[in-house]
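FORM 7B: Structural annotation worksheet

SECTION A. Query
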Amino acid sequence: MSGPPELVCEYCAHRSHGGESRCGHCGGPLRAALDIAETTVRGAREVVKDAHEVVSHAEQVAGVLGGEWQRFVLPAAAVLLAGLCAVLVWSCSPLRSAVAPPPPAAAAQALPELLAAATSCERADAGRRTERCVLPAGSPLLFGGLAGGRELTLFTELATPEELAATVRRWRAAGGAVLLDGRVYAAVGPSTTVLYADSRTGLVLETSAFSGPAAARTFLNRAGLLMP
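SECTION B. Predicted structure
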């Protein structure tokens, strides 16, 4: 009889062989390793299909140009194709998140570009790398009275995986409407605040209140925070 399936954490890529629903290392959601492998294989098949088309076109071009040019066209196409396949196969793998980019030096640097450009931030706590950011009432991100005509305050922090997982557990326990719950957690809290955490960067974000749950969801979309 086969044992329980191997599970992989979507937050930290930690592996587990038990029947847990959450990672014992950081508390993140688990996914079957077989599912990850199948996803990678599907991506690889698409790459190979595209590769055949590239080679076919290269052969046609070389045939038109003549025998002398074939010495240059086909080898160049082969080298380009090999590099393209390596990049695309890796990009299809969900485990690419285990190789993280250098962490941001400040929480504001981890915000989506549109939101970062629209806010002004100041360091609130040097020890925990916490920042208080303000989005002006007239910002296009708040058009339609999303914040009731007031400026929006965003409290941002760079958290460790353990801190981030503990924060998300606390948010889940408090209730609210969860919109994403994977490597990115996004929800509208009971007080119509936005609750957001990204395990890839360590960013934890909580806002002041919106005019209603629909307004909070609209803001999440406009600000680019609903990108899994």
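SECTION C. Observations
Residues 39 and 74 are 31 Å apart (CA to CA). The radius of gyration is 23 Å.

SECTION D. Sign-off
Analyst initials: ____
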